[in-house]
Amino acid sequence: MHHLLLALATTPSPLPTPSLREGVSEDQITPGLWGFIMTAFFVLATTLLIVDMVRRIRRVRYRAQVEEERLAAAAAADVEAADAHDGMAAPESSAGLEGNGQGTAADRSQPRD
What we know:
By secondary structure, this protein is an all-alpha fold. It is built from 4 helices and no strands. The termini are far apart. The relative contact order is 0.03.
């Protein structure tokens, strides 16, 4: 085994000649013009698909963000409306205070009919 490794390490291997076999031309083994055209077409189509996909993803994210903001605003409006309906909101004017007997002095001094 040791001799075989030594023989492989010291014996030079011949380099293959860079010529084609007989009857084979370069057009038969290289992609040629049609190969280049098809490769360029696939690269262009892939690039356009990626750009379109990124644009659609951005649009979906933007729509989701707008929808979340709309829902948050609607929820806030619902909470305010529920608070106002339950009487939790601060009164808008002093007219709401008259029924509680906490009106102004001028309101208390006038006789009621």
